[in-house]
């Protein structure tokens, strides 16, 4: 072992028992995110090797239908997002995500709930990357009015959305409930994620009922981009959107 440490010695430096280190080495227990953080601190030597492993482990814990999209999202130059059922995963609080995941069907085990919540929260690293990602998200108003978890959980979620809306690299808009009164409702076909990659290619990602579709065909992506522009045109402007979110959260100006 690097540095010639015994399992007990390594465990002491990492804050784990020697038995836990032994179980990890013999693959009797999956390595945890915290364990990889400590391995990087104690053994990494600035190489970042265990940090890279953290990304791979997180990816393995994601739902299968999301694994192909997750690395693309994390490397994106820009994102254009539309969500019409629940708050988009990138913008969920931990409590909201936990209530949503735990309430799914089939019912996940408590251990699986925690894995998925941790993986979802890890996606937020995108907000504070050194290479800034410009993010635009449009939420259907019904998303803001549908309580998940409890009133307290929902109020915290709305307050967090308001906080996100004030970020310089985030543009948050709300598609109002009455958007269809004019005879045209651009958001009727459900959620979509549009991504600009570091190579300035554009892809679309769709997800429904545990299934997903990653689209790279330029003509199809162009259609989704045009549809997204229609949704944006029917949405409230950012200032009015923030005002509505704050009103629903009970924030006094």
Summarize this entry quickly.
With 253 residues, this protein is an alpha/beta fold. The protein has 11 helices and 6 strands.
Question: Could you name the key traits of this structure?
Answer:
253 residues; 14% strand; 11 helices; alpha/beta; 434 Repressor (Amino-terminal Domain)
What can you see in these coordinates?
By secondary structure, the protein is α/β, with parallel strands linked by helices. The protein folds into 2 domains: 2-61, 434 Repressor (Amino-terminal Domain) (Orthogonal Bundle); 65-91 and 123-249, 2-Layer Sandwich (Endonuclease, Chain A). It is built from 11 helices and 6 strands. The chain has a 6-stranded mixed β-sheet with strand order 3-2-1-4-5-6, with helices on both faces. Helix 1 (7-14) crosses helix 2 (18-25). The longest helix has 17 residues, at 218-234. The mean pLDDT is 88.
Draw up the topology in text:
Layout lengths: L6 H8 L3 H8 L7 H12 L4 H13 L8 H5 L3 E6 L10 H9 L7 H13 L11 E7 H5 L5 H15 L4 E6 L16 E5 L5 E7 L2 E5 L2 H17 L3 H12 L4
Parallel strand pairs: 1-2, 2-3
Antiparallel strand pairs: 1-4, 4-5, 5-6
